[in-house]
Write a structure and sequence with these properties.
Distance between the termini: 49 Å
Number of helices: 8
Order of helices and strands: HHHHHHHH
Shape: globular
Strand content: under 5%
Length: about 200
């Protein structure tokens, strides 16, 4: 999946270094990234990007959060490999394509002249860039990751579909809630943030 297709339309350089560069560009120059870095029919790099983000987030969570995953009657190393492989190789790709299908359906009535589903997949995948830190058990950081990710998704929809903020928000709010509120546990972090704030008062 890290091998780039031949001559993608407006595509980017590929491979592990390109994934790292894409991560940095999405975070600091998102508008330009979505304008020039999302190519029709070129989903594989976006899927690889999402899997890398999920791997970072869930590995951190597995290590730092006690009882983050159910225990198994095997060695801790084998349990970690099993759970992380399940989440990264199965749950993340399935979730991405389910959410992309839902996002496409929501774009139909709101953005008549919209981009293709492959571009929607890429926008969803690359918007998760901040969530590499979502596994750190600090509520404030997790809320920031989820919030910035949701903003990137809405911005990406606006840029790729060449539409207004209102239409992007109408089309992207539900997928943003699913991906960042539930998938990356932004809502739970917001709840934890409230509890932590009350504790400090």
């Amino acid at each position: 999946m890290t091998t780039w297709i031949e001559n993608p339309e407006g595509g980017r350089d590929r491979g592990p270094r390109a994934l790292a560069r894409a991560w940095l560009e999405v975070l600091i120059r998102p508008r330009r990234f979505f304008r020039v870095g999302v190519s029709p029919g070129d989903q594989a790099p976006g899927l690889t990007f999402l899997m890398a983000v999920v791997c970072c987030a869930e590995t951190t969570r597995y290590v730092l959060v006690p009882d983050a995953y159910p225990s198994l009657p095997v060695t801790p190393a084998l349990a970690a490999v099993f759970w992380l492989s399940l989440v990264v190789l199965l749950v993340a790709p399935l979730s991405l394509h389910f959410t992309a299908a839902l996002q496409t359906l929501l774009l139909v009535p709101t953005v008549p002249d919209r981009a293709g589903i492959s571009q929607t997949v890429q926008v969803l995948a690359y918007s998760t860039a901040p969530c590499v830190f979502a596994g750190v058990p600090v509520p404030e950081l997790r809320v920031l990751c989820a919030g910035y990710g949701a903003f990137l998704l809405l911005l990406g929809l606006r840029v790729v579909n060449e539409t207004s903020w209102i239409r992007a928000i109408l089309a992207g709010s539900v997928p943003a809630a699913l991906v960042f509120g539930y998938g990356f546990r932004g809502f739970a972090a917001l709840s934890d943030f409230g509890v932590v704030s009350q504790t400090h008062i």
